[in-house]
């Protein structure tokens, strides 16, 4: 054990001569404890909100999606299908068309997000989605079942024109089960001024169910209905949904797909994070802002540490003069107080981290703090949060200890 560290440890555990010095030293430790705990708790809380938000949104997004590099329409060639089948991790490839169109019901219009999907997409993404509607010949009966169960009864197959409507839209238009819905999409080509309706592709579908997991105006229908409405060929779609066996992460699968099919850069391969790029960046920006705010609070709390070191230097000036007379060089004397300040930071930071971890674990298990009566504040323990907090405390403690020793000069010892 080096002499400066031994003396610093002795100074740390020895009671100071004045009550003011003791009070400031204790306040410095408590400030770091509280600041560290608060930083860890808020980062864990924000991680919990991020995880909850991303999961709730990403469950409605493809794991991976292939889109054309240019334009909106993707032509699915036999060669593309063959190359995707050669990737062993891919378990499902399905087509999806997403477009905002106008839906008319009994003279009332609403712009909705049309999602035309094939059977593979239903099996991999929607089979557990709860829907409410008429699924037997008895038109008086209404029931809540999964879309997978409805398919067993012959509903929502690829070639039919049955429509699932979001609950918000069906309530707004007061749509009755099995009534017809008309969908309008502008035709491609030149506009005909004499007959406005001739400028639209108009298709009729039948309202057969309500899905309850979306608030936005949206409808689900078959892929063929979507192709007919948007004047697309049988081998065309807007995107291919890729589901894999999770043996590799999304980025690794994306790399394999790009190496296999994207030699000419004619496709865009998007992970879930790519699909939600702006939203994900917003979450990260908010996380950084919260981190900076609580780091500032932690920096303010270390001002007491600087004061504690300065008071200790003044209090121990006679001892330092003696140490210098015994042959200890000035840099070693200065290192004593740097190490003492760093010990305060380390013990305060470690205690605060443990305290923060206990608070987060209790929130996870007990859910004491709640958003409302039904939902507790979400928290998520991540290794990166430990690394961020420890790194922040060490850096702040280092500079605080350095600033605290600025008082100690050769001239000060000679006074």
The total count of helices amounts to: 15
* Uncertain residue ranges: none
What's the helical proportion of residues? 40-55%
Radius of gyration over C-alpha positions, nearest whole angstrom: 33 Å
Content of β-strand: 15-25%
Count every beta strand, where a strand is a DSSP E run of 2 or more residues: 13
Element order, helices and strands?
HHEEHEEHEEHEHEEEHEEHEHHHHHHH
Kindly name the structural category.
Answer: alpha+beta
| Shape field | elongated
Q: Let me know the largest β-sheet.
A: 6 strands, mixed, barrel
Provide the spatial order of strands within the biggest beta sheet: 3-4-10-7-9-8
Mean pLDDT: 82
Task: Give the termini distance in whole angstroms.
Answer: 31 Å
What do these coordinates show?
There is one protein chain. This protein is α+β, with helices and mostly antiparallel strands. Helix content is 52%, strand content 20%. The chain has 15 helices and 13 strands. The chain has helices spanning 3-13, 19-58, 78-85, 119-126, 147-152, 167-173, 223-229, 250-261, 272-275, 277-301, 303-315, 317-325, 330-366, 383-404, 410-414, and strands at 64-68, 74-75, 90-105, 108-117, 130-133, 143-146, 162-166, 180-186, 200-211, 218-222, 236-237, 239-244, 267-271. The strands form 2 sheets. It has a 6-stranded mixed barrel. It has a two-stranded antiparallel ribbon with strand order 2-11. Helix 1 packs across helix 13, helix 2 runs antiparallel to helix 14 and helix 11 (303-315) runs parallel beside helix 14. The relative contact order is 0.19.
